[in-house]
Amino acid sequence: MFGKEGYVVRPSTTNSYQERLNRVLIHIQKNLDEPLTIERLAEVACLSPFHFHRIFSAHVGETVTGYVRRLRLERAATRIAFTGESVTDTALGVGYETPAAFTRAFRERFGMSPSEFRGQQRETILSFAENSTAKEIIVMKPEMREFSKTKVLFVRRTGAYGEAATAAWEALMGFAYKNRLMTGETLMVGIGHDDPAITAEEKIRYDACVTFSGDVKPEGEVGIQTIAGGRYAVFLHKGAYTGLPEIYRNIFAGWLATSGCTLRDQPCFEVYLNRDPRRTKPENLRTEIWVPVV
């Protein structure tokens, strides 16, 4: 295959770059509160800083600094919207050294200060809680469960959740069946990292994941990450996957506000209970939504 500048790129080289970038992307999402210099990330990728910067931009579509900055601000927006922590704590928690620098960057990204953003989100939640659907969710009791940290194989796609999920699962299941990894004990897990109300649709990240046992190595776009352990509120959704966005709105704008729970700084994930969703009628699909709480 040919690269953007006309030179030949061998498939083995492309796979190597994908494996290295997977390591970097997971490192970034787990360490947004730490210094993330080009030199350190290049070290994670086992590349020189010069080549790493070019390869990252070509594959991800953003510069390293731009990508990290965007993720920090979007994570901050979620924390401001759904937790009661102070702006100072949020700023420090996403890697800013001072609240002033954070507020400037936040205003540039969202067009308002963090305090104004929080006020806007609270008005939205109060308005949402007045309709009957939200009231039904508020009184619904999720099951509280402990989850042990678990390594999973994953493939990431970006874009609208429906399209990204379909593409990610197609790629992952091809690898899993080729390597005979699917057993009766395998969990099929989806991780949606971003809130569509905050993140631009084309930048939304979705990971299709399966649990595994034994010695399985990353290969090309198939990487390995660890789902955090801890306490989760688990909701059961019965029906088509197209109904999931409404359930999430009900959870975050309805149930969370009255639950007494606080979100942990980890992504929610979904566990798909049907062994072959393609052969299951939409009304018979069962999906668990795991929300990390304390």
TrEMBL record:
| Origin organism lineage | Bacteria, Pseudomonadati, Thermodesulfobacteriota, Desulfuromonadia, Geobacterales
Q: Name one GO molecular function term.
A: DNA-binding transcription factor activity
- Family annotation (InterPro entries): AraC_E-bd, GyrI-like, Homeodomain-like_sf, HTH_AraC, HTH_AraC-typ_CS, Reg_factor_effector_dom_sf, SmbC-like, Tscrpt_reg_AraC-type_HTH
Q: Which UniProt keywords apply?
A: DNA-binding, Transcription, Transcription regulation
What's the source species for this entry? Geotalea uraniireducens (strain Rf4)
| PROSITE patterns on file | HTH_ARAC_FAMILY_1 (PS00041), HTH_ARAC_FAMILY_2 (PS01124)
PANTHER family listed in its UniProt record: TRANSCRIPTIONAL REGULATOR YGIV-RELATED (PTHR40055)
Per its record, how is this protein called by name? Transcriptional regulator, AraC family
Which ranges carry the HTH araC/xylS-type domain? 22-120
This protein's source sits in the domain of life called Bacteria
